[in-house]
Amino acid sequence: MLVNGAGPFLGSDRDNARARIAAALAQSAAATVRVEPGPVTADGTLVVRYDVRGVREKSSLNIALVERGIVIKVARGENRGKTLRHENVVRAMASVEIDGDSSGSIEIGIPRSARRENASLIAFIQSRSDMKIHAATLADLPTSATTRSVGVRE
After folding, report:
1. What angle do CA 135, 141, 145 make, to 5 degrees?
2. What is the mean pLDDT of each run of 10 residues along the chain (154 residues)?
3. pLDDT at 132
4. CATH classification of 31-140, choosing from 3.20.20.70, 2.60.40.10, 1.25.40.10, 3.40.50.1820?
């Protein structure tokens, strides 16, 4: 397991994982990132506007479209007969290289099967030299009363 780009260590070591996560959360973010989900184009692409401040080195802005509340009833294999629940499953991802303060937009293809009402964007700035995370944020996708899924990509 890695925490904030540092490690690695055995992820099943719960006490160590909690201690490293707590230490990372106690530190102030080195930069700031804002994302705003915009319109979905006719071909199922989500336009995301971003604003990044305080970046001091070459980095990547990574934006993951995640979905919560996925329930799967397993029919075969070692988990046959079980119902598995999944949270924050990455359904799509996009990245853009940044070097200093930056703003702009990036497009993310939304899978047809994604349920928009259960989707969010997780954005994080990651150093290209040491892979450390300098800032992160979360933004829910706007929902529509008439749209349960969007897009045409698979």
Report:
1. 165
2. 85 93 89 92 90 93 96 95 95 94 93 89 93 91 48 32
3. 86
4. 2.60.40.10
